[in-house]
Amino acid sequence: xxxxxxxxxxxxxxxxxxxxxxxxxxxxxxxxxxxxxxxxxxxxxxxxxxxxxxxxxxxxxxxxxxxxxxxxxxxxxxxxxxxxxxxxxxxx
Length: 92
Description:
Elements: E1 2-4, E2 19-26, E3 32-36, E4 39-40, E5 49-51, E6 62-72, E7 75-78, E8 82-86
Antiparallel strand pairs: 1-5, 2-3, 2-6, 4-5, 6-7, 6-8
């Protein structure tokens, strides 16, 4: 899965030096599903692009909300919640 983060002006957010965490919430935004620590795509953190490979799954198809928290030293910032649809892969 890959993401690109933009700042308020629509420019790519420079994520250099930040540690990202991906927070997953259910469709009602009321239940915390999981926290995944993604890794930055090689040489792309300056353009706000990162990706991760994860063996965890959502457990079932449906709608979820994602938020990315970025931490650097004493500074923390977060993206807005983004709604995604997880589909059944058909793989057991």
